[in-house]
């Protein structure tokens, strides 16, 4: 049986390259092992009608990676436009930041339709498609329009907001109705799943029973699959990385100070301004902490052509300068602020060096950085995670110091408490979090979703068998979980 995974961005398995973005980081190791074909954007665009989508295919572990050039005429409207200036802000409950032109939705649909045509090359009777994230909400419907009856699942890596917020997205009804072409729709948390179902019920007026929506496409099951990381691998990487030159240099430069670390894409959902303000406030409230603690904030620029992102970058740079100017001394600065990426190995070593991990998004689907920070700790002397209660990870990591990222004083107190926490309490909290991480690895997430997709399609097939035309188009009776490495059909140009 074969699995085709689709996402906008794909990752390449080069150990020393940064892998910024939770989706790519989580998918890479499981896809490498599964033998699946991973299809995504090459990052390049092409002129022309794209009747013949162009894909470069390379080996990826037991499977393959297929990189598509997306249509030049629609890329901007699709990526910077509808996906990242309408859907992303809405999904993160920031409808105030929605900025779209009326062509953007059209471009988004065109790119989804283009991807569907490209995927036909990879389809075999036993193929299951697994579509990732908000870039491709309507891809399943496009595949169904092309006659595809194979199982198609979808997983959303971001949150799903309260019903009224999605109503601010242009064409929201048409788009969300198209999502019901998926056999299975996966979310990070119960809240996300409930919000989606509440939208479907009230805006689309559709029938829902036991989280299964019935629409003109048949049945679509909604369920929760919290994404995880490869815990043991990350822990090992972190232990080894202690001797990496970048990590040793950081340790030497601390002169005995304790470090807090923040690692994020430079995105307004990450609560970076509030975090810097909280660190500032902590130093005001606890002047004795000066020269004994500092914050390393790594903020990798992303989506820089979008105004909300370039504004945030300027605002943060100004704020960090102000805080350093206010508290800094000739031989000590409270904040080290870096706008670059690091390899997973170095990152793991940096996390382990830090006594405190500060992960304080305003709203986040999961936030894998929180999980990585925990996995990277030294079991004999673990650090403390300060975690926003609005990160998906907070559902599992209940023994972190949970904070409200809108409450600056509360965050300041939590960071100070994390620096002061005695070893026994740090260990108790950390061990409980590690148990959670081990129970919900990336591999487990992959297996759980795959099994649920098989079940969801099987029950849809039963429904389809009542309809002779649809039943004839169903080529496989069920979709066995076992995924065999296969590159046949992958040589597409
Ligand atoms: P998002 O997917 O919104 O970016 P997550 O916290 O879920 O947020 O995932 C971020 C991923 O990107 C993590 O795997 C993290 O290690 C990686 N990452 C973030 N910043 C950097 C960086 N500066 N260098 C390398 N990797 C990074």
Automatic annotation (TrEMBL):
InterPro entries: Glyco_trans_20. Keywords: Glycosyltransferase, Transferase. Pathway: Glycan biosynthesis; trehalose biosynthesis. One of its GO terms (molecular function) is alpha,alpha-trehalose-phosphate synthase (UDP-forming) activity. It catalyses: D-glucose 6-phosphate + UDP-alpha-D-glucose = alpha,alpha-trehalose 6-phosphate + UDP + H(+). Its EC number is 2.4.1.15. One of its GO terms (biological process) is trehalose biosynthetic process. Belongs to the glycosyltransferase 20 family. Homotetramer. This is Trehalose-6-phosphate synthase. It comes from Nitrobacter winogradskyi (strain ATCC 25391 / DSM 10237 / CIP 104748 / NCIMB 11846 / Nb-255).
